[in-house]
Amino acid sequence: MKIMKFFKNQVKNVLWKFWMFRGIKSLKKPDSYMDKIRCAVNETIYNKLSLEEKDRINGIEQIRKKFTQNPTPVDITDFGAGNPDSKRSDDEMLKGITHSTTYGAICLGSKPSLWALLLFKLIKEFQPQTALELGTCIGISAAYQATSQKMNGKGTLITMEGAESIARLAEKNIASLHLDNVKVVCGRFGDTLPKVLKENQTIDYVFIDGHHDENATVDYYEMLLPHLSPRALLVFDDISWSEGMKRAWKKISCDEKILLSVDLTMLGICVMK
Ligand SMILES: C[S@@+](CC[C@H](N)C(=O)[O-])C[C@H]1O[C@@H](n2cnc3c(N)ncnc32)[C@H](O)[C@@H]1O
Hints:
Layout: H1 2-25, H2 32-45, H3 51-68, E1 73-78, H4 90-95, E2 97-102, H5 103-107, H6 113-126, E3 130-134, H7 140-152, E4 156-161, H8 164-176, E5 182-186, H9 189-199, E6 203-208, H10 214-224, E7 228-237, H11 243-253, E8 258-263, E9 267-272
Parallel strand pairs: 3-4, 3-6, 4-5, 6-7
Antiparallel strand pairs: 1-2, 7-9, 8-9
Bound molecules: S-adenosylmethionine.
């Protein structure tokens, strides 16, 4: 069983690296921002890590390991689209759907280590002062991004989560890694994002990894627009997750306000003009 899981993960990693490789191959023109993305992707594919990076990432992965097998039940209210076949109505997403699950099952929603490393490397290249994450879950990707900011010697991360029980757990996990540059904001994005944007006029980096609904994703992009600094970096997760998410990515990546976009099949990366 363990051997099967190991091989399955190896195959997934090869496929994901192929997606990353194919994505950056499409970047033809020489450009300093493309170079930064290329560099982040290459360092991720070849797992180029300093000893300090390795050590800090190990600490985060220990937390993932601790929760992956955790059968403790927990009630959560989910304001997202569920899974690609759920077809939740706008009203259901507005009110949220409360259900019982386990910490182990929740943890499966965290970005796998390869993709989380890419976020870490992108932050290392782009050096954002103010970073925003929509979708905290138990804080794994937040920890990667905030650790990268710590190692840059600058920057704070605001990470947003709708489910109260998960947000509180993320806070604990982030604190256990001594990351004092993170603020967890709890509530539905539709309610919390306007306030966060009012308090943070300029945003340099955004990772959108929650909701996974076509209209909501485009709406968040439009809400973010007036607050993005020149050459801000936007990372959209799960751009091939559903037909709706594919359309959302197509709309956003073709927007005239975007300088360049890269499709890595799982993630889409945009640099603003
Ligand atoms: C895929 S998980 C995030 C994983 C996390 N970024 C990581 O890689 O560690 C998405 C999270 O977004 C939250 N979420 C989805 N839709 C939301 C909404 N409309 N408002 C607030 N939170 C939402 C869910 O509760 C869930 O925990």
